Amino acid sequence: MTDGPDDEIVVPDDLSSLFAPADEAPSVALVVTPVAVAEPLAAACALAGVEVDVVPSADGAIAVLRDPAASREGATAVSQLLRAVPVVLLERRAEAITAARWTDGAEGEQVPGGLVLAQGPLVLEDLLLGSRAVGDVEGVVTSVGMSRWRATRILASSARRRR
To answer: Considering the entire predicted model, what is its pTM?
Structure first.
């Protein structure tokens, strides 16, 4: 190992190069919810016109947005559907991960993405980092192609079970 000029560590004056540009569309967008069962969340999203694949997990259903570029619209819709229940939108852009809490259709404070991943189920990290495809997860339910009639029936059935 040498201590020549090529071995110097250069610290940039502007640290913004370490973060993905805010205007860059995310390549992956997930909405983490406390909903216990995937099917009712998929049904609610179908009625709202949000195209998601809902992954079940022990910590709550995860809505994987089919169009990550529409992540804000998806988080708005899901958080409005769940009335007063906070959800977290996780986005991956290039090498950066961002997370924000959403409630009643409005974006709240930013939360550390690493903290959300550390406290979440392993499948959350796998989906966000792309090491596992949503189609490879057991129990996935999609909102795409679900009829309004079927979605309404699923929601009514889940409401009866909660009573």
So the answer is: 0.83
Distance, CA of 85 to CA of 33 (rounded, Å): 8
Contact 66, 54 (CB under 8 A): no
Kindly tell me if the per-residue pLDDT of 144 is higher than 50. yes
DSSP 70: G
Tens digits of residue pLDDT in 14-44: 444 445 455 789 999 999 999 999 999 999 9
User: Which residues are 55's β-sheet partners?
Assistant: 62
User: Distance between CA atoms of 17 and 19, rounded to whole angstroms?
Assistant: 5
Maximum C-alpha span of the chain: 72
Under 8 Å between Cβ of 147 and 155 = no
Phi and psi at residue 88, to the nearest 5°:
-125, 130
The rounded distance, in Å, linking the Cα atoms of 62 and 24 is 23
Helix, coil or strand: residue 125: helix
Give pLDDT tens digits for 96-126: 999 999 999 999 999 999 899 999 999 999 9
Rounded to whole angstroms, the Cα distance separating 41 from 34 reads 10
Angle between helix axes 38-48 and 148-162 (nearest 10 degrees) is 140
